[in-house]
Amino acid sequence: MGRGEYYKNKYGGGRGGRGRGRGGGGNTDRSDSRPVSRSTTVISDNELYDVLCRLNNQQYPAYKDLYRYRVDYGGLFQVKFDNIQGDPYAAPSRVTARIPLNSSRYEETTCSNPERKVALADYILRAAVDKIQQIGADEKQKGNWHEGKGGELRIERPSQNIITRTACEVKEGAIFLRFCIGLPARGRSICGEWAADICCTTLQSVVIASCLGRDSDSGTVQRWVECYEDQESLRGQLEGLGLVAFVPDGAVLPREAGDKDTPLSGNVVKFTSPPSLSVTLNRPNGGPITGMGVRKGVTLITGGGFHGKSTLLSALKFGIYSKIPSDGRENLVSNPSTLKVRAEDGRSITGVDISNFINNLPYQKDTTKFTCSCASGSTSQAAAIMEYLEMGGKCLLIDEDTAATNFMIRDDKIQMLFPAEKEPIKPFLHRARELFTKFGVSTILVVGGAGDYLDVADTVLLLDCYEVTDVTERAKEIAKLKPVTVPSLSPMTEPNSRVPSLGSFKPFCGKVKIINKAGVSYNTDDSEEASTLDLSSLEQLVEVGQTRLIVEVLKKLVDKPRASLSSLLKSLDAGIQSGGLGVVKDDSNWLARPRILEIAGAINRYRHLVLE
Q1: What span, in angstroms and rounded, lies between the C-alpha atoms of 583 and 553?
Q2: By 3-state DSSP, what share of the chain in percent is helix, strand and coil, each rounded to 5?
Q3: Are 275 and 471 in contact (CB under 8 A)?
Q4: What secondary structure does DSSP assign to 78-110, as a single string?
Q5: Torsion sign (Cα): 543, 549, 553, 554
Q6: DSSP bridge pairs for 281
Q7: How far is CA 187 from the centre of its chain?
């Protein structure tokens, strides 16, 4: 009896048997009818084991023979080799397991719409990662020339967020689960039996643990997909209710550590909404839920240091993503276009109209098409806001700790010393209301020491020992005692609609290295040294797969027809929404979906960007 046949007998071929599908229905969308390429031969896992054993001690390139095969594991699932490394020191090989849904243990209700398919894929991916780590399959051997090396099987561990990824997808009536395998070698000679054990035993055990088996976890997975579906529904309700965010009562906002996104355990103060801001929303699965509604307009979050101001802002920052159950922030949602902006000393700016905030520079330097390779804190923050307006965003987040002070405020004493008409910088304080009244852009601002913002706020929240109080009325009374002097300013103008020269993205078609989620190395024709695209200020990137997709987008833009930056990216996003991440790049890569705001942010920070 072969390995696949053994597991088929042990775990079954799906509920009701493979021939009958799900309860005997004839749903062709779930059938295993996808055609096999003529260039591949279907073999069993037993035959794969023999093939790999025959490769033992051959030179490493002989692994390329595996491209010829699609491996069937007892009729339960199939595996194909998407990319095979050229030597043991190269990036690991990539393989895809395709598991028909009617062979899996998952009920049809867990993937009955696009949202549930995303959530189910996320659930399966985490189950696979847990199994890999449980059995130690992700441990890479690093021996010397005469010792074995490689041998790891791994999938990147996802963040606390449920997002669209190619590492696991539910589509076309099947589950697609993608792995990296470091095909093992001793020196440059193939370790065939070791490879056979990985591909025929280890990989199979991971697929069984995450997708197959008779033991039902339908209750857990059902709650998982319903939790995601509820959060997507809540986020969709915000606009109609005049809100930019919703924080549920009972939420756990603090994280375990600054570099960890898991919830803080122990004696944690759970969130409770001030009665004046309490609203009740309805979830399609979980029913009514009550919490704080953050209204459109200008909202201040104030209070003493270490009392939870930035913790609340951080939770709102990541409210653009739906969370896994037990994260503590599930059901906390923000407007999908919410963006955190900050000062970025040294960033590159190309052709941005920052004159709404900065003009009348010495020597009459033009700021309507401002270009700078090493921006200051104030010019970088002004550019970030105007770039955000260019993309049509509706909710800004600013923390005074990471903002440029001279961009945020000029108090009366400084204005007396240096008159406003001579100051090139128009503080954000004087533009925050107009951003909302003219452009519909709300601002949520953490302020601990700039009381002048009380004059422009619609809502003021006070954090005291992590508990929130609505102090708007008291703040307005204080503001009346000494009103802010606002100089007469010309009305804000619309942002530039910039048209990038698409040829300027050609360096990304060459040698590119993803350093981490915040950095990309690339080479240009005019320099032997690699350049770096610094994404560290794009704080809402949560996974390196999003950075990979950004790079693939930059490659793809080279062949796009001429259009404005916003039109290019909105068209691309619409294509991803309808066709999946595969419209950008072959989906055998580990990609994750970012927002177009992060893609635009990467382009705006690209030092070799050229505009037409």
Answers
A1: 10
A2: 35, 20, 40
A3: no
A4: EEEEEE--SSTTSSPEEEEEEEEGGGSS--GGG
A5: positive
A6: 289
A7: 38
Q: Write the pLDDT tens digit of every residue in 39-68.
A: 789 999 999 999 999 999 999 999 999 999
CA angle 29, 82, 148 (to 5 degrees): 135
- Across the strands, what pairs with 178? 96
The confidence score (pLDDT) of residue 360 equals 87
Do 294 and 316 contact (CB within 8 A), yes or no?
Answer: yes
The radius of gyration computed from the CA coordinates of the chain, to the nearest angstrom, equals 27
248 and 331 Cβ atoms separated by less than 8 Å = yes
**Which residue type, as a one-letter code, is found at position 545?**
G
Which of helix, strand or coil describes residue 169? strand
Which run of H or of E encompasses 546?
Answer: helix 544-557
Q: Nearest Cα to 443, choosing from 455, 426, 431, 427?
A: 431
Alpha-carbon span 59 to 48, nearest angstrom? 18
HSE-CB for 291 with a 13 A CA cutoff: 25
- Distance, in Å, from the CA atom of 298 to the CA atom of 395, rounded to the nearest integer, reads 10
Which pLDDT value is given to residue 218? 66
> Strand ranges (DSSP E) for 336-393?
339-340, 349-352, 370-372
Beta carbons within 8 Å of 497's beta carbon, 6+ residues apart: 390, 564, 565, 566
Quick: pLDDT tens for 512-535.
999 999 999 999 887 778 999 999
* pLDDT the model gives residue 23: 34
Q: What is the DSSP string of 445-458?
A: EE-SS-GGGGGT-S
The residues, any chain, with a CB within 8 Å of residue 184's CB and separated by 6 or more, are 88, 141, 148, 149, 150, 151, 190, 191, 194, 195, 198
- Among 320, 337, 327, 161, residue whose Cα is nearest residue 253: 327
Residue 370 amino acid letter: F
pLDDT at 253 over 90: yes
